[in-house]
Give the backbone structure.
Amino acid sequence: QVQLVESGGGLVQAGGSLRLSCAASGSAFSINTMSWYRQAQETERELVASITVGGSTNYAGSVKGRFTISRDNAKNTVYLEMSAMKPEDTAVYYCHAEYRLRSYVGSTRSSWGQGTQVTVSS
């Protein structure tokens, strides 16, 4: 099992920046795609950005050009640099990781972090 712990959330003014971190720990053969999702009140959880173990990235259109996802494979940590933030970025941000318990594909599992609140004031 892999456990994910997020940090770095908080309150920021519109136009400001925040950096989220998510550290993975536990036993796994490999940690593959790591992602950030967010869920605002009374909305569904949505993908913000993802990054593969090789560094390929994918972003939601609403954050492209403002947010940057990166990872440190040696530390099993993924980051989300958020800039030019808007009130509509306010949400609970969740880290997600896909990993393999063993070398075969059938051992793929996934985990969620507990979430960290990000609030952008206007």
